[in-house]
């Protein structure tokens, strides 16, 4: 599927939430989409690493690292694992490292920034819970559209009437 987020917004803006948080883009795939999976964690990437080691089936992993830039939540090894396991992309509310290599991977990657410091590995956090990027809540199964302009979210469930 080829799209631009700006055209999608013009066509279907009322159905889509736009993320205003500003990310840097990495990886050779700058336009990507897929159903969301999520991890919420803080300076600890063990859950995200484990999930990206399982079949992605074209999903986009949203890692809500609370915006901390103190430790990197993904590097080239985890990025390569995401590619090998069929993930479309990884969006990180936090930092990555090995960014020069990550930038060469056939993967869509958005992160706030970079830090060479390694993540903790205690496994604290939650998988497939609703997470927040700025003002936008992303639930597992929501459809994500990302390109150079930003990130649009299509809620998977139609809101109930009167809700
Ligand atoms: O293992 C980590 O914490 C991140 C990393 O360096 C990699 O993915 O290569």
Short structural summary:
With 163 residues, this protein is of the alpha/beta class. It is built from four helices and twelve strands.
Please give the structural blueprint:
Layout (H helix, E strand, L loop, with lengths): L4 H8 L3 E4 L4 E3 L5 E9 L5 H7 L7 E5 L7 E3 L1 H9 L4 E8 L2 H4 L5 E7 L11 E2 L3 E3 L2 E3 L4 E5 L2 E5 L9
Parallel strand pairs: 3-4, 4-6, 5-6, 6-7
Antiparallel strand pairs: 1-12, 2-7, 3-8, 3-11, 9-10, 11-12
The site of oxaloacetate ion has 11 residues, from strand 5 and helix 3.
Catalytic activity: oxaloacetate + H(+) = pyruvate + CO2; 4-hydroxy-4-methyl-2-oxoglutarate = 2 pyruvate
Subunit structure: Homotrimer.
EC number: 4.1.1.112, 4.1.3.17
Largest sheet: 10 strands, mixed
Q: Number of DSSP helices? A: 4
Radius of gyration: 15 Å
The end-to-end distance, rounded to whole angstroms, is 32 Å
Q: What compounds are bound to the protein?
A: oxaloacetate ion
Could you give the count of β-strands?
12
Helix content: 10-25%
Mean of residue pLDDT values: 95
Series of H and E elements: HEEEHEEHEHEEEEEE
Textual characterization of the structure:
With 163 residues, this protein is α/β, with parallel strands linked by helices. 17% of the residues lie in helices and 35% in strands. It has four helices and twelve strands, in the order αβββαββαβαββββββ. The chain has helices at residues 5-12, 46-52, 76-84, 99-102, and strands at residues 16-19, 24-26, 32-40, 60-64, 72-74, 89-96, 108-114, 126-127, 131-133, 136-138, 143-147, 150-154. Strands 1, 2, 3, 4, 5, 6, 7, 8, 11 and 12 form a ten-stranded mixed β-sheet that branches. Helix 2 (46-52) links the parallel strand 3 (32-40) and strand 4 (60-64). The longest helix has 9 residues, at 76-84. It is globular. The N and C termini lie far apart (32 Å). 40% of the residues are buried. The mean pLDDT is 95.
